Amino acid sequence: MLQILTNSLLAASIYALVGVGFGLTYQVTRCLNFTHGVLITTGAYGLYVFKGVLGYPWLLSLPLALGTSIIMSLALYVSVFGPLRRLGASPLGMLLASLGAYVVLQNMISMVFGDRIQTVYTGPVTQGLCLLGMRLTSVQISTILASVLCITISDLLLRASRVGTMMRAYANNSTYAEIVGISSTRILLMVSGLSSVLAGVAGIAMGMDIGITPAMGMQPFMMGVVAVVVGGNRHAWGIALGALLLTVAQNLGGWILGSQWQNVVAFLVLVLFLVFRPQGFLGRPLWKGSV
Fold it and tell me: Is 130 helix (H, G, I), strand (E, B) or coil?
């Protein structure tokens, strides 16, 4: 049972990073953006190139890999989503464009790097550390600590900074925000940058732990979306708790029914929350008044 909790905590660290970044993007754009999955993959391949191929030191490779995700996110905004927004594209049009961009970019990554699993050498293989009865490798411990740190910083940035106030104001009412002088382009670029950093950290952590493939971004992206629904989209720590609840349910389901049922359990949890508590367990229900 302790190992189930360990596996759940590790997976939740990844899903929470992805979910917080996606949740912020969705709050501002109201669009299900599939290219968020590409940002996860880009961060992992950035690490592979700078550390695995070029042999740069870790202190240089990690920020360069994150920079790769940021550049990809900004390039997508400038070339795809910015022009579509200026043309007044509908949310459905933006969703289809993001899905098309995801397919194109994933195939481009496959053409450049191939489809086989790439790995980054993190040191000699050793037995995992035993903490409170749970066995974790140094990479997995680093993943959990990095996730907690990134989510804490993101939460403080959104709740206790001027930039966060502008983002929340734009997410609540973009028209009024622009009237009072908040630049929509600036907000969207900042949101793209922050979400790409979180996605890049998730991709780097996955790449160091389980390897790197062109299609690695879609599964954590979809689980991150489920975590947003389960936890509620208003608080970063709510999404993190939603991710933990999701992964505990997945691992318990896999333990009882078999590992092939884990994704079925995840989307069963999604359906249950959409039907019985669509605002998430930390969200607030919408007030409905009569006319």
Answer: strand
Residue 97 belongs to some domain of the structure: yes
Contacts for 95-100 with beta carbons within 8 Å, 24 or more apart? 95/31, 95/32, 95/33, 95/34, 98/31, 98/32, 98/33, 98/34, 98/35, 99/34
Query: Is 256 a member of any domain?
Result: no
Percent helix, percent strand, percent coil in the chain, to nearest 5 = 75, 5, 20
Q: Is beta strand 129-131 parallel, antiparallel or unpaired with respect to 134-136?
A: antiparallel
Q: State the Cα–Cα distance between residues 157 and 164, nearest whole angstrom.
A: 6
Residue 255: its pLDDT value, please? Answer: 81
102-106, 114-118, 283-287: which has the minimum mean pLDDT?
Answer: 283-287
Beta bridge partners of 130: 135
**Total domains, the chain:** 1
Q: How far is CA 246 from the centre of its chain?
A: 15
From CA 21, how far away is CA 192, in angstroms rounded?
9
In a domain, 93, yes or no: yes
Q: How far apart are CA 232 and CA 283, in angstroms?
A: 5
CA 164 to chain centre: 18
Domain hosting 79: range is 9-122+130-214
Give the C-alpha separation, 40 to 225, whole Å: 14
pLDDT in tens, 31-72: 889 999 999 999 999 999 999 899 999 999 999 999 999 999
Identify whether 254 is part of a domain: no
pLDDT tens for each residue of 222-266: 999 999 999 887 788 889 999 999 999 998 888 888 878 888 898
pLDDT value for 39: 96
Helix (H) or strand (E) holding 131: strand 129-131
What distance in Å separates the CA atoms of residue 151 and residue 167, rounded to the nearest whole number? 16
Place of tokens 């905004």: 77
